[in-house]
Each structure stands twice: as C-alpha cells, then as structure tokens.
What we know:
Number of helices: 5
Strand content: 5-15%
Oligomer: single chain
Radius of gyration: 26 Å
Order of helices and strands: HHEEEEHHH
Structural class: alpha+beta
Mean pLDDT: 93
Largest sheet: 4 strands, antiparallel
Amino acid sequence: xxxxxxxxxxxxxxxxxxxxxxxxxxxxxxxxxxxxxxxxxxxxxxxxxxxxxxxxxxxxxxxxxxxxxxxxxxxxxxxxxxxxxxxxxxxxxxxxxxxxxxxxxxxxxxxxxxxxxxxxxxxxxxxxxxxxxxxxxxxxxxxxxxxxxxxxxxxxxxxxxxxxxxxxxxxxxxxxxxxxxxxxx
Length: 185
C-alpha cells in the first residue's frame, strides 16, 4: 500500500511541476484570451458592434447592383472618411435591406441602403479589434506579415498549453483522492 501511494504521490508532484511550468509562462496569454472571449460573447450587449440600420426596401429586385454599391462605398470612404477605399468584406442584410461594408485596418463599418445607395451609418467595429487581439491577428497586422505566422504560433501554443493544464489539473485533483481512498482501505 505505501509503495502504491508513494508512486501516486511521485506522479502527482510531476504533474504539479508540469502544471506550474505551463501555467506561469502562459498566464498573461490565457488571461487575455479569457477577457477578450467574454467581450466577444457579450459584444451586442456591450455595444461593440454598430446596430444594423434599416434600408428602404427588403425586396431584392429593387436593390441597386453591387458595382454601384461598391462605387458609393469607395467614394464615401475616400472623400468623407479619408480611408483607404479598399473593401475588406460586404455583409448583405436582406431582412433589413442594407449592406455593411468593412474596410481593412480601420475597423470602420459603413452601412448603405441597398435600394437608394444612401449612407445610413458609419461606425467603429470594436468587436473586430477585440477578435484580432483574441486570436493574435493584431500582431501580424502590426508587423505586416503574410500567412499569419504569429497567429498560428500563438493559438497553437495557448491551445496546447490549455490542454496540458486541463490534463495535469485533472490528475492534481484526482490523485489526492486516490491516495486517501487507498489509505482508508
């Protein structure tokens, strides 16, 4: 019995060392991921995304062609917002008759009425910035790197670290219970 509990205690000490050596270096990263994860989960309630505006018609046959909407968005971005007119993505909202047009790097969203082409709203998409912090993309953007090497390294390191912490934490929880059970028997 003593030899068996000694072996379990020895493994528990090894798990404790592993847990410490993984947790200490990853603490700041895991805290940042947790914090930004909470913010992303609550993005609508925290008003981190501009509310969707209503266009004048939800009937697609009345909407302007896509090339006209792109021209309106690019012109407005360059002339009124003084932004690079390159468009990152377009989010068409059929139920509201509007389009959200996003510009890379500025986290700016332009909402346009699909029927009239009128600019309905301009706002910052703070949730996109928080998402880039959450997954490490922000560093790749600041460094101007292609293929997201920091993001891939960061997410791999923190994910593997979190899995190791879960496994070692489980054994740190279970082994003392096993030792107590053996000693009682």
